[in-house]
Amino acid sequence: MAKKESAAKFEAPEKWKEISEEYWIANRTNETDKVKDIVEGIIEQVRTEGDKALIALTEKFDKVKLKRLQITRDEIDAAYEKLDQDVIDELENAAYNISRFHRMQLPPDMWTTEVEPGITLGIKSTPLNRVGCYIPGGLAAYPSSALMTVIAAKTAGVDEVICCTPAPIQPAVLAALDIAGCDEIYAVGGSQAIAAMALGTESIEKVQMIVGPGNMFVTEAKILLQKDVLIDFPAGPSEAAVLADSSAVPEYVAADLIAQGEHGPSSAYILVTDDPTLPDKVWDCMMDILKDEPRRDIIAKSTANSGYIICKDMDLAIETMNGVAPEHLCIQVRNPQDALAKIRNAGSIFVGPYTPIAAGDYASGTNHVLPTSGYAKMYSGLTANMFRKTSTVQMLTEDGLASLAPTITTLAGVEGLHAHGMSVDIRFGKKEAKKKSKK
Questions:
Q1: Catalytic entry in 102, 184, 220, 328
Q2: Is 3.40.50.1980 the CATH number for 2-30+236-380?
Q3: Within 10 Å of residue 309's Cβ, how many Cβ atoms?
Q4: Is 327 known to be catalytic?
Q5: Degrees (nearest 5) of the Cα angle 7, 359, 164?
Q6: By C-alpha distance, which of 34, 57, 382, 387 is closest to 235?
Q7: How would you classify the pairing of strands 239-244 and 268-273?
Q8: pTM over 0.90
Q9: What is the CATH number assigned to the segment(s) 32-111+128-232?
Q10: Exactly one of 220, 239, 293, 327 is catalytic; which is it?
Q11: Is residue 37 scored above 90 in pLDDT?
Q12: Active site residue 92
């Protein structure tokens, strides 16, 4: 009875349309510059007023009067009490999977190899000291983002991982941050949180890097503060793409597209296929599924940002998908491994009919903090390695340096940097160095 009543009230959105690659790219452009002036004002307020600004801005935007910025241990313990045990168990299960996958990504702390007699080269990998994670919040709860960001940083070996998320903080988010190993949690959201982590305040010590998704105000703050702090990448509304041929199950394709559409009205999804009959089949499935979805009104709005592209063959479809460079890419074709090998631009790739995007969002262990708006052409998704920096290492013996001396002194002379060449010559005595250089 409930389903029939729900279906009767459902008003199907205008049918999705065939679009071009150029249309998709143009409509996915990140328009954070529209809020630049507002964000610049907030950053300056935080820079000059510190904690006072954070408390005032939280009351203004989130309608919450904070007694303190930092969440206490008692508040975290109280959050656990509000959660069912199965929720806690599955947060811990997801945390284990995320940690396992991110440990696999890490390089050795240091490696060296003797490339020639007396010449040993290598890489030393070192984690950052202090990192800030931003978790969207307020009316919604994203414990999964808490796990993704904090665990990636902790697995990389970061000493101090802090988190900012808007008040009021949902119990599941507090529990997730605790399970992930977050060192400090602050009830601060929006661009003011980014400014606090980047610049520092009386309560929040500045960080070296800020990661995590957020709205356009958060993203613009990250962009504007890049001279003060590292960021993961600019990010916009969520998006999903499916590469499919006639072997794809329309219902599965529809489900993956709808799942990303429920993030918000600015979300978008695209189907790229060589089967001209597939878009109509997928649309019919989408409308059938949508009738019973609680967030169907949001999904319906996201349809306006979405569409499909029909290509003459799969090679062109793959080329088109590389141009789209989606945040999430599902591959549902007859030869998925062949298609996967040809994909160059995508944030995260889901191969086969039984690999929904939701698996990566929550449980498989891969990270769901990903580049959007075509940024997958130049950025990677969040990995443990992003929290580490590398130093090159070189160790030379006397014979090893002697073998390189002619190259060093000659190039130093060409560049007019006499002292560079001298720093080699002096180790041998000038006469001996010149003699060896002539050989």
A1: 328
A2: yes
A3: 23
A4: yes
A5: 95
A6: 382
A7: parallel
A8: yes
A9: 3.40.50.1980
A10: 327
A11: yes
A12: no
